[in-house]
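Summary of Year 1 activities. Much of the first year was spent building the evaluation harness for sequence design. The harness presents a backbone, in tokenized form, and records the residue chosen at every position. We chose the following record to illustrate the format because it has been used consistently in internal testing since the harness was completed.
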């Protein structure tokens, strides 16, 4: 897996991702402490609102940012967004009012909503080989999982010698280092083939996404992933400390079991995806998530919960990590940032629905009902994905063109059939192909 780091451009981008993730993790810990410092017992409500603001920014801002991404050099855009995030981190220690937290969080997460999909869309252009790109996706999954473990640990160690306000300095360093690493390499920036209006550019990624059968299946799987993930993130502390009567340390170990399962799957995925198609792997992972939620009804002790969270971590990574491969297959280079932004927005819309559902159901009806309800959501999502994502899903798709000029270069290699032209090539939704062809 690590051989992909021999590519200098990718190596610098991966290091930029890792350093920025650690900085973001430190900011998350510091933000919780800042909220408690300002709001006391109401800190949970403050953090809940901040989380909702984060998701709203992700859903609403990423398609707009993608509209401008095709007009700006990718390197300049990524560096600018890193600098915006660093500026917000500089300002956070000086906050004295709750509303100031909300404004700064919206700016910070809006910058991240522009940065992350643009960054993700750049990797397949840097690593055009499918196997290298798969390894990069697994490394990225590992980076996210390790960050969830390493950042709180590092923050705990630092808090023994510094004030929590100083943790924000680590965030500033992370974003500045990320910007420096991006500046150190040359990034491809595909140019749009035709000028487009702002509405077209803002909605283009969503229209391509929703017109592509495999991506509609991916959207359904996003919901299954969010249902299981929300159960873990929202209710682990309730299960461990309120239901089982254990300590904060036990809560941390439970979350580590989830992260460990995800890392195990990420390590195995490159070799697994060489042998089985993405569809089978992702449906299997989502099936594990749905089944685990139903089994959770019988999780009557802590050790069963640890095994269950490990299984959910495995299913989570198996269902989510290959999504970049689908997005790459389903978009032309110039449309890739917009399609990645659509995935970013739509997947976070699923989380925006499941986060409050997991919390509300748990508070009102208890954990058994929550496991059952979220298991039902995940099961319906998996079944829907299996139906709308065709089993036979080739890259090369034979199709007809009946509305192109005879001299259009796109049909130079096509055969004249009746009133149109037939040919096959790697099929994506674009200006020549506004709809997915029916089976011929």
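For this record, the design step produced the sequence shown next.
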């Amino acid at each position: 897996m690590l051989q992909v780091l021999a590519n200098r451009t990718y190596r610098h981008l991966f290091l930029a991702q890792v350093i920025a993730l650690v900085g973001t993790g430190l900011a998350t810990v510091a933000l919780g402490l800042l909220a408690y410092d300002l709001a006391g017992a109401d800190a949970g409500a403050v953090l809940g609102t901040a989380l909702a603001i984060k998701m709203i920014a992700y859903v609403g801002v990423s398609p707009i940012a993608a509209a401008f991404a095709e007009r700006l050099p990718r390197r300049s855009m990524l560096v600018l967004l890193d600098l915006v995030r660093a500026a917000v981190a500089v300002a956070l220690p000086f906050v004295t009012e709750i509303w100031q937290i909300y404004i700064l969080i919206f700016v910070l997460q809006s910058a991240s909503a522009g940065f992350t999909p643009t960054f993700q869309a750049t990797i397949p252009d840097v690593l055009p080989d499918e196997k290298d790109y798969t390894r990069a996706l697994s490394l990225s999954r590992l980076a996210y999982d390790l960050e969830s473990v390493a950042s709180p640990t590092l923050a705990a160690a630092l808090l023994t010698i510094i004030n929590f306000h100083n943790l924000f300095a680590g965030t500033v360093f992370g974003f500045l280092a990320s910007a420096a690493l991006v500046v150190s390499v040359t990034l491809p920036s595909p140019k749009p083939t035709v000028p487009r209006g702002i509405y077209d550019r803002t909605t283009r990624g969503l229209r391509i996404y929703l017109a592509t059968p495999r991506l509609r299946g991916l959207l359904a799987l996003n919901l299954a992933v969010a249902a299981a993930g929300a159960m873990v993130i929202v209710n682990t502390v309730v299960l461990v400390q309120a239901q089982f009567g254990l300590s904060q340390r036990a809560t941390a170990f439970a979350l580590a079991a989830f992260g460990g399962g995800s890392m195990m799957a990420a390590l195995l995925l490159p070799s697994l995806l060489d042998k089985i198609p993405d569809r089978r792997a992702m449906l299997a992972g989502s099936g594990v998530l749905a089944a685990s939620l139903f089994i959770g009804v019988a999780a009557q002790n802590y050790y069963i919960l640890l095994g269950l969270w490990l299984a959910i971590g495995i299913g989570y990574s198996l269902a989510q990590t290959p999504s970049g491969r689908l997005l790459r297959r389903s978009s032309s280079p110039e449309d890739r940032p917009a399609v990645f932004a659509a995935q970013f927005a739509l997947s976070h819309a699923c989380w925006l629905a499941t986060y409050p559902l997991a919390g509300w159901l748990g508070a009102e009806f208890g954990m058994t009902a929550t496991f059952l309800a979220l298991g039902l959501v995940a099961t319906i999502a998996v079944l829907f994905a299996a139906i709308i994502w065709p089993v036979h899903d080739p890259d090369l798709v034979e199709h007809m063109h009946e509305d192109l000029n005879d001299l259009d270069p796109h049909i130079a290699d096509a055969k004249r059939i009746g009133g149109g032209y037939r040919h096959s090539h790697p099929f994506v939704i674009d200006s020549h192909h506004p709809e997915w062809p029916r089976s011929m």
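Residues 8-39 form the longest helix (32 residues). Quantitative recovery figures across the full test set are reported in Table 2.
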